[in-house]
Amino acid sequence: MTPHQSGQPHHEAIDRRAHPPAFNVPGIILALIAIFAIIHAIRVFVLGPVAASDVLLDFAFIPGCYGDLDEICRFRSTGADFWSPFSYAFLHGDWTHLGVNAVWLLAFGTPVARRLGTVRFIAFSGAGALAGVTAFSILNPTLVAPVIGASGIVSALMGGACRFAFGGRGGARFNLARADMPVVSIADALSNRTVLVFIAVFFATNLLIGSGVGGALGGGAIAWEAHLGGFAFGFLAFRLFDPLSRVSVP
Questions:
Q1: Is 217 part of a structural domain of the chain?
Q2: Given its phi and psi angles, is residue 153 left (phi above 0), alpha (psi -120 to 50 degrees) or beta?
Q3: pTM for the complete prediction?
Q4: Bridge partners (DSSP) listed for residue 147
Q5: How many CB atoms lie within 10 A of CB 243?
Q6: 172 in a domain, yes or no?
């Protein structure tokens, strides 16, 4: 039945398409989660210990290898220094690590992907991954250990969502189904109490992790620096990727 046949105004049908329900997840989000799961399953169930170690060596991000600070870095494939700042995001330590990132990707990647579209979303996510390991490298330049996980991307998505999904000075509850709200300035975002609380909790949690509390709680080694770098990038640079930033949205 068409909108005209049902007696409903045509613009209402357009509005419903413009504001899809929260459970209608963009394909790029589902594809990323599927790729994460397939890669991890192959590492766990298909590859042997040696092959799995080789994958980590070639595709995880290793800050110390940029200065050839360890002999093991010589065994990396040619070009690993170029792709590992992005490929590390597709590797995870275990199923719990993957599951946590998948949940946050669903929550914050959904509105950002709807707003940016697939191509811009991929570019934004890649830049977020790079920003995360850049921050990590600045604080850990000599570390010769693999950094893995999509947390840098997820953190960038969180930062980007703070620029539109919570509203402006007046504030609004976070709404996955609204991806077309006007982008707000950095000043206006920081004037939103909900955004301020969200940022404070995010940074406080990561600083506690950095102080060793995460390890004490069983969290193990967590690259909190990459979280902060990704979030800062997403929050500060979102407008550069946003196709609606110069469009007045009613």
A1: yes
A2: alpha
A3: 0.81
A4: 61
A5: 10
A6: yes
CB 131 within 8 A of CB 229: yes
How many residues are there in the chain? 250
DSSP for 204-229, please give it: HHHHHHHTTHHHHTT--S--HHHHHH
Domain count, the chain: 1
Q: What's the pLDDT tens digit per position in 129-182?
A: 999 999 999 998 888 889 999 999 999 999 999 888 876 555 555 555 567 788
- For residue 181, the Cα-to-chain-centroid distance in whole angstroms is 20
Task: Give per-residue pLDDT as tens, 43-101.
Answer: 999 999 999 999 999 999 999 888 766 788 888 988 999 999 999 999 998 899 899 89
Residues 6+ apart with CB under 8 A from 62: 73, 76, 84, 143, 144, 145, 146, 147
C-alpha to C-alpha distance for 129 and 22, rounded to whole angstroms: 25
- Domain holding 171, by residue range, is 25-241
Those residues with Cβ within 8 angstroms of residue 135's Cβ, 6 or more apart along the chain or in another chain: 225, 226, 228, 229, 230, 232
In CATH, what number is assigned to the domain containing residue 176?
Answer: 1.20.1540.10
Structure tokens belonging to residue 227: 């979280």
* Contact present, 124 and 160 (Cβ < 8 Å): yes
Query: Which structure tokens are listed for 134?
Result: 């850049």
Is position 72 within any domain?
A: yes
